[in-house]
Design a protein that fits this description.
The complex is a heterodimer of chains A (456) and B (168). With 456 residues, chain A is mainly beta. Chain A is built from 1 helix and 33 strands. Classes of the chains: A mainly beta (456), B alpha/beta (168).
């Protein structure tokens, strides 16, 4: 890979503390005070070029400490409508003809390498901020990527969107040719979907175990009717992504078709997947399913708590999860709350019995785009929100597996358009935060407070 | 029943009123880029009428199913008292093929297209706490105040009721 490119560096030393409370028992606010040691933010570095339009970052870290970042590239700033000619001349609206770019930030380097394109031909990626790519690593140093791509169905000859997988086995120097995860659908649903696609198998999720089992999930329009509900599909590799089992239709057409799925593994056998299920009269409720046998079987989906959110529309709301020992954590947007915002809930992993949900950012007028990551009992949640000004990135630590949280912190990002945080963890116990800032991808390290004040 | 009668009376009254205002006579064949200042200008130019701002996108199927009803309302009501202000939330960089899409499916729809860096930046002019869910519509009264926020596809009867409640 080429040497480090020219990157923007911004100073992020000023962190603003907001006085929020995350109160289950309001009277017992301050539970323990050991030492007030504020988490500190280092400098951020740009992963994408300043003259490109970058969206939807995702990050992962390998055992050697290298930070790997991917994002959608929607063209050069000022470049209008380059789309259309790359996939058989199809020009229609559901497609977003973007690229998927990758760059790495190696330990000891000042910043990210020059980025490379993952998709073989330009414009093959169906790129929206609300249908993100996913990147993960395993203990063998392999880098796994899933993303939504454009294509022409060989069965119908119509434009479709599909889920693709690629991996690197050389630390990110090269990536293998992507494979399509979903089978080609027989039906032409153009009249139903309307916006130009005959089928869509996207809003993809991926979880990779330390041993290299790769679990992929996507929302699928196969079987969709006028009620506009997607099925949930699953496909797995047990050999680090070299080969995949056949796809499995995991859930029938009961899922919100535009709410990205999330997945994670816990140890060698446990696997969780979260989607937004539609029940009754368009009630869109996030659920969590668990497999204790590496994806051989899954339990029934369990609803996360919150006010029922009825919507005949496109919520465009992904789910986020993390695990700490014996506990699963959920962070999801709920449009029925007043004001609408992110609800946090946790449950024991063995029974998924969620405790009542709480607003992660009570002072926010609106909060959305959740991300979570954990190291041991330390849990980090990040999101974008508005309090009394422009949209900003906020985050919050828990050192006790979600029982109590430190106050909400604001990432100081000036007046620019900011959003869509993504998280990862490092082998030396730090967190990595990536976000989109004026269509440039920024990345920085975060360290959890060693001790301090937590609010219960 | 009473709401239906109120709607018919309103529609009849408005039908005999002078139609058409020059300020929003945009060519439906052109998707006009809209930034924050443009939106503020269009909102100001709409005062004195009941205004329905509709946020839609080509990738939002419920939005596309709702637009014919909104066009029916626009046809039923004189432009001197009602305005439909449609704004596509598609990427402004793809305005070319969004224009083609609109010309094919909704040729009479006058629509703008978001020209800001993201959806939230533009919509914040109307609603600082929009949760980026589509479709979303805002109904303004004649004084230029938002009196109703509507999320998700709704039947035309619902919109008729809301427009009457907004002073139509």
């Amino acid at each position: 890979m080429a040497a480090c490119n020219t990157m923007q560096t911004k100073h992020r030393s000023a962190l603003k503390w907001s006085g929020s409370r995350f109160s289950i028992v309001a009277a017992a606010a301050m539970l323990f005070i050991v030492d007030t040691s504020a988490p500190h933010a280092a400098e951020s570095v740009a992963a994408s070029a300043a003259d490109r339009r970058a969206q939807a970052p995702a990050v992962a870290v390998t055992e050697d400490g290298t930070v790997h970042a991917i994002w959608f590239d929607k063209g050069a700033v000022g470049e209008a409508d380059r789309k259309g000619a790359h996939v058989g001349g199809g020009r229609h609206s559901h497609q977003a003809f973007a690229d998927l770019r990758y760059a790495r930030w190696m330990s000891g380097e000042a910043g990210f390498s020059k980025s490379i394109r993952i998709n073989p031909e330009p414009g093959q990626v169906w790129g929206f901020s609300i249908s993100r790519p996913v990147i993960a690593t395993d203990d063998n140093g392999r880098i796994h990527i899933v993303y939504p791509g454009n294509g022409i169905s060989p069965k119908t000859g119509k434009s479709v969107a599909s889920s693709f997988y690629s991996r690197s086995i050389d630390g990110g120097q090269t990536f293998e040719a992507p494979i399509q995860l979903n089978a080609d659908a027989d039906e032409d649903l153009s009249a139903l979907i309307m916006g130009g696609l005959a089928q869509a198998q996207v809003f993809t999720a991926m979880a990779v175990s330390e041993q290299g089992a790769v679990h992929t999930f996507w929302l699928d329009t196969r079987g969709m009717t006028e009620s506009m509900r997607a099925a949930l599909y699953y496909r797995r590799s047990d050999d680090g992504g070299a080969h995949f089992e056949d796809e499995v239709r995991l859930q029938e057409n009961e899922q919100c078709p535009c709410c990205q799925v999330s997945a994670l593994t816990e140890g060698p056998s446990s696997l969780f997947v979260s989607a937004r299920q539609i029940t009754g009269d368009n009630i869109r409720t996030p659920t969590v399913m668990h497999s204790a046998d590496r994806g051989e079987s899954f339990g029934a989906p369990v609803e996360t708590p919150g006010t029922p959110w009825r919507l005949e529309g496109c919520p465009l709301k992904l789910t986020a999860m993390a695990t700490t020992p014996h506990t699963i954590h959920s962070l999801v947007h709920n449009g029925a709350e007043d004001p609408p915002g992110l609800l946090y809930a946790r449950a024991a992993q063995h029974d998924l019995s969620f405790l009542p949900s709480q607003k992660i950012h009570p002072e926010a007028a609106i909060s959305d785009s959740p991300a979570m990551a954990s190291i041991g009992d330390t849990l980090l949640a990040a999101w974008h929100a508005k309090v009394d000004g422009p949209r900003r990135i906020f985050y919050r630590f828990s050192l006790d597996g979600g029982e109590s949280f430190f106050p909400v912190q604001t990432l100081a990002t000036g007046e620019s358009s900011v959003g869509y945080p993504a998280l990862a963890t490092t082998p030396d116990g730090r967190f990595v935060l990536a976000w989109q800032e004026n269509e440039v991808i920024q990345v920085m390290y975060l360290e959890a407070p060693r001790q301090g004040v937590a609010l219960r | 029943m009473m709401r239906s009668i109120a709607w018919l009376l309103a529609a009849f009254t408005l039908a005999v009123a002078p139609a058409g205002l020059a300020s929003d006579q945009h060519d439906p064949g052109i998707l006009v880029p809209m930034d924050r200042d443009t939106l503020r200008g269009e909102l100001a130019a709409s005062e004195g009428r009941v205004l329905l701002v509709n946020l839609w996108a080509t990738w939002c199927t419920p939005c596309l199913r709702e637009i014919p009803d909104l066009l029916t309302l626009e046809t039923e009501l004189p432009a001197s008292d009602f305005r439909l202000l449609a704004i596509s939330m598609d990427d402004a960089y793809s305005a070319g093929w969004v224009t083609e899409f609109k010309a094919k499916h909704f040729p009479s729809l006058v629509s703008f297209i978001n020209a800001e860096v993201d959806m939230d930046t533009l919509v914040s002019v109307i609603d600082p706490v929009w949760n980026e869910t589509l479709p979303t519509s805002y109904i303004f009264n004649r004084e230029g105040e938002v009196v109703k926020k509507v999320q998700g596809k709704k039947p035309i009867a619902f919109f008729r009721e809301q427009l009457v409640a907004a002073g139509l």
